[in-house]
Amino acid sequence: MNEGRRRSERFSWLTFEAKVFIKRSFFVKEWIPVVPFDFSRFGLGIQTDEAFEIGEEVQLTFDLEKEDLEVKIPAIKGIVRYKSKVHSRFDYGVEFIFATKLDRHEMDIDLIKIERALKYFESSRMADGG
Asked: What CA–CA distances, in Å, run from 55 to 51, 62, 81, 127?
């Protein structure tokens, strides 16, 4: 098989996982997977069965993997700014918050990497027709 042809037939892949930290009780805490959407370095949308209130602080974790890139954010805080019930689930808009400008600056590099990777992946999928 022609090496050039093989390379052109490969499709890019990307996985982006997000989880939210839930306190069930004083002793029971867990990370729950959520469906992320509309990500930017300032915040994102998430879909989940969990119920949050507008103004509530949440803690998230992200794991993005692509052929040539891996970005892990073990913990980032956000404020729920939007809430909408969709069937049995909720859509939330979450704005990232930081204790200091230095914290923001340190996290910004990884957030921008995730934002760019997701935008690039989405635009390449649209260009491929799908």
From this structure: 12, 21, 6, 38
- The answer, yes or no, to whether residue 130 has pLDDT greater than 80, is no
- What is the DSSP secondary structure assignment for residue 31, as one 8-state letter? E
Phi, psi of 106 (to 5 degrees): -65, -35
Does this model's pTM top 0.90?
A: no
The one-character DSSP state at 56 is -
10 Cβ contact list (under 8 Å, min separation 6): none
Domain total for the chain?
Answer: 1
CATH classification of the domain holding 74: 2.40.10.220
CB 18 within 8 A of CB 48: no
